[in-house]
Protein: non-specific serine/threonine protein kinase
Organism: Marmota monax
Amino acid sequence: MEGLPRAPSSAWASGVEGRRLDVRCWKPFTINDLEIGRPLGKGRFGNVCLARLKENHFIVALKVLFKSQIEKAGLEHQLRREVEIQAHLRHPNILHLYNYFLDPGRIYLILEYAPRGELYNLLQRSGPLDEQRTATIMEELADALTYCHNKKVIHRDIKPENLLLGLMGEVKIADFGWSVHAPSLRRQTMCGTLDYLPPEIVEGRTYNEKVDLWCLGVLCYELLVGRPPFESPSQSETQRRILKVDVTFPPSMPEGAQDFVSKLLRYQPSERLPLAQVLEHPWVKAHSWGVLPPGAQKAS
C-alpha cells in the first residue's frame, strides 16, 4: 500500500465543530499516539472506533483497514483515490480526513468524529423524516456538492449509509470510496448503489457531475417516504424503473417535495435541477431551517 498521498498541511488546521487541533501534533503518527475507545462500526475491510489523541485529548474517529483484505479485493487504487480526494476537501458538510498512517498490516485513517452516527441508522430507528429535516439536509448537501463540483470532484454514491450526522445534526458526506477527481468531469465507470444509480450509469453511457443531482432526488424521496423510489423485488425490475423514471409519489408526500424530486429525477442529465436552483427551490426555502454551517459558501 505504498504511494498513498500526503494530506496537505492545512488539513491539520481545522478541528471538529470549529475547534483547532494543536499543530504540535503534526508529526508522523503511530497507534501509540492514540487512546482507543469504543467501536463505532464494522465494515468489510476493517473497523471504525472512537479515539483520542494523547497529546491534547482531541476526539477523532479512527478507521482501521487491513492491508491484506484491501489487496485481495484489488482496491488499493480506490483507497489511494479516496484518501487523496478527502484529504483535500474542507467543507462543513464533508467529513474531515485529518491524516493517515500505516503499520505492516494495517492502514489507519484519522477522521472527524460525527457523534450522531449514520443517517441510515436514524431512518431505521425513527422512520421517515419530516419536511424541515429533509429540506435542511437537501440544502446542506447542495452546498457541499457545489463545493465538490467546483473542485472537479464527483461523489457518485450519495445515500443514507454514506452520510453522517454531526453534533448539531448537520449532515456530513463521509464516504468517498466511489468518488473521482475528473478534470473533464466526464466518466464512464459503473459504480454506486443500484437504487441510486441514474439512467446514464445503468446504460453504461458517459456521465458527468449531474449523476449527483439524480442521487439527491432519490435521497430526498427516501428520507420523506422511508424507501427509495425505484425499489423493486428484482435487480432487473429496479433497472427498468430507473430507465423509465417510473416514480410513484404516495399521497402523504407534500406537493412541494414532489415537485422538487421530479425536477431532479430526469432521464436527461441536462434537465435536472442545478444545485444553485436546489438552494432556491420554493419547497427547500420554505422548510429548511435555512442556516448553513459557518464557512459554507452559497452555490453560484
Residues 1-26, 178-191, 292-300 have pLDDT under 50 and may be disordered. The first helix runs from residue 67 to 72.
